[in-house]
Amino acid sequence: MKKFISLMLCLLFCVGALAGCGGLDEEEKGANIRVYLTDYPYTLDPAVIQVNSDVEQILSLIFEPLTTIDEDGKVIPCLATEWYYKYDEIYQLHKMYFELKDTKWSDNRTVTADDVIYAWRRILSPEIDSPYASLLYAINGARDVKSGVGTIDDLGLAAVDDTLLEVTFSTDLFGTEEADQLAAAEYCQLFAEQVANVHLAPSREDIVTRYEKAGEDWAGNAANIVCNGPFRVQSMDMPREKRENEEDFSGKFACKLVLERNAYYMRDAEEDALDKYVLPYRITCYYMEGQYEYYEDATDQTQKFFQAKRYIDGELYFLSSFEKETYEYFKEDIETQQTLNGYAFYFNTASEALKDANVRKALSLALDRNDITANVTGTGEVPATGYVPTGVFDVDYKSDFREVGGNLYNTAADPDGAKALLSGKKGSFTIKYLVPQNDYTVKTYRKINYANVYENVAKAAAESWKKLGFDVTCEGLDPTEYVEALTTRNYDVIGVNILSGSVDAFGYLAPFAKEYSGTSVVVDNATATLEEIFNPHYTNIDDADYSNLITSALKATNRADRAKLLHDAEAKLVELCPATMVFWYSRSFVANDKMIDGYDTDSYFGYIDFTELELDDWRDVNASEDAVSIARNPEE
User: Fold this and answer.
1) Which of 284, 357, 396, 448 is the most core-located residue (most Cβ within 10 A)?
2) How far apart are CA 94 and CA 166, in angstroms?
3) Three-state secondary structure string covering 60-87
4) Mean pLDDT value of segment 384-404
5) Using CA atoms in the order 556, 559, 563, 565, what is the torsion angle rounded to 10 degrees?
6) What is the DSSP letter of 388?
7) Least confident window among 38-47, 233-242, 357-366
8) How far apart are CA 212 and CA 159, in angstroms?
């Protein structure tokens, strides 16, 4: 009997060893990889306002748009396998077609052209605030639909079949001559670049409408979310309700966002291996879980410091969010990529203290962008030299909009120039800033002094502006209050993450023009003109000359002419100064030695692809983590 048992154990060991060298066993799922990527997202709805600076990293893992941009700046297939132009000779319309690949949503339903159409119709609907609407204005009827004058049926989108999307360009763009057809064919390249944007990814009408009718955020609860990307949202564990005191705290603080392999992504369930297209089974993004087991007094332990400590202790394998001190600690090992996102201050042009453009320009001049990025944020941000960031295309991907446009901001403070613009004008105002969801929740449960980079930037700006003679206060808002302040224009100055996610300068500049703002509208007057129907940008700016430049840029089908108009628009924006860019974000990360090289950083947007990520000895790691989880939460 002893010999038999020994033989069986030996066989089991050999089977386990062989399994460790090859693919997954039938009952195995794959590696669970613990990471810290971003602050906890306020919402994972790609179509609406995003308040987190790096939420796009999560969105890029769970959603796929039609196209994307490779590391060299070339537009390449994503959800769409190919695209082409066709002139409709019968109706004299210029059309573009996207062929979709065979893939499925995370609930096993096929991703269809209708899903793309619904997502774009939703962005262009009058009821929704979406800063990405202007990227779709080349579609016939888009402006009328957004204003509420046109109906959804008037929009130039159609599903020829499940895998073929038809886009009809606006009749204002091209004529009917042969030269117009050549121009329209070239314009398809520009539109393919514009839709390489995760915020324009498809969405499911049945899911979104079901929860919106119930008054819920369909993308704020894992149970509601379906995804068409390589990962799906398995859970979103974040206590959201307010607690008045520590006695209400249960002692358990398991806060995390869990992404699991989308088992239906690009996969024929009957033929393909489970891990053929996505290797890791689970990406677990940890936040405050176990923080109070580490520190009895967590007063000075920020979220980013805490997660850096877990990374050092080997409990996390990938760290992609830092504060100044932790960035400095890992500086020698950090890998950095550019992004196309930035941080700006919006000035409410209707605010009494900020009505004068010279006052707003003075505030912009007084900012020391060099000091803010070096000593306040200190995590690889780049001082902004214009509103449109480096990396955005100019005439095409071979030229850079920022390099061609030159510097429109000084990165060092110019207090003398600011005072000259003010001519003795003074006043009082408040700077509002975001307190991220995870920071806010911890403050609610435990009275902790949390460092917040947005607060630090606001305080640095306030000190600069106080030196000009202004009375400035700062106020932090939780995500819900923050979005409300922005959409209702209830602020004087507000710090905003600019997540245009676009290689096209139009996406950054157009929303400041009234008809392109993307904000919701209410049509209550049948005789109102389009100009009267549209709401202005969140800054309340409404300038006819600026709007004309944006409209001209939209109608310009020659890319050189279009780029020139957009440069003129940016110069005009700096003159009007409803907003000023403070810095541009970069994405930095460090990876544990257990992470076998499998994270792809080729995205032009700075996204990190985890589909081929491997974790060394993951079977042992998973077993160890399961044991720790059970020990911490025995009731589960």
Assistant:
1) 284
2) 10
3) HHHCCCCEEECCCCCEEECCEEEEEEEE
4) 97
5) -20
6) S
7) 233-242
8) 24
Three-state DSSP state, 514? helix
Can you say how many angstroms the Cα of residue 79 is from the centroid of all Cα atoms in its chain? 18
What dihedral do alpha carbons 375, 376, 379, 385 form, nearest 10°? -90
Which residue blocks in 379-518 are alpha helix, DSSP H? 401-405, 415-422, 437-445, 453-466, 479-487, 506-509
Element (H, E) at 43: none
Q: Six-digit token pair at 77?
A: 């297939």
3-state secondary structure 172-192: CCCCCCHHHHHHHHHHHHHHH
In the chain, the percentage of residues whose pLDDT exceeds 70 is 84
**For 170, which DSSP code?**
P
Q: Which residues pair with 80 in a beta bridge?
A: 100
Return d(Cα 170, Cα 166) in angstroms, integer. 13
Token pair, residue 560, equals: 């050189």
Residue with tokens 């449109």: 388
The residue whose two tokens read 């911890």 is: 442
**313 CB burial (10 A radius; 0-12, 13-18, 19+):** exposed
Calpha distance 285→32 (Å, rounded) = 10
Strand-pairing partners, residue 474, are 431
Residue entry with tokens 């409709």: 88
**What is the token pair recorded at 548?**
């004309």
Cβ atoms of 122 and 201 closer than 8 Å: no
d(CA 69, CA 67): 7
pLDDT score at 274: 75
7 phi and psi angles, rounded to 5 deg: -65, -45
pLDDT at 528 over 80: no
Closest by Cα among 403, 314, 358, 359 to 592: 314
Structure-block tokens of residue 134: 């202007």
User: How many CB atoms are closer than 10 A to CB 424?
Assistant: 6
pLDDT value for 18: 35
Mean pLDDT, residues 502-525 taken together: 90
CB 199 within 8 A of CB 501: yes
Q: Distance (Å, rounded) from C-alpha 194 to C-alpha 215?
A: 31
Question: What's the whole-number mean pLDDT along residues 165-183?
Answer: 95
What does the alpha-carbon distance between residue 221 and residue 233 come to, in Å, rounded to a whole number? 9
**Which token pair is 57?**
């990293």
CB atoms within 10 A of CB 343: 22
- Measured between alpha carbons, how far is 117 from 158 in angstroms, rounded to an integer? 7
Question: What sign for the dihedral angle of Cα 13, 17, 22, 27?
Answer: positive
> On the CB side of 15, how many CA atoms lie within 13 Å of its CA?
8
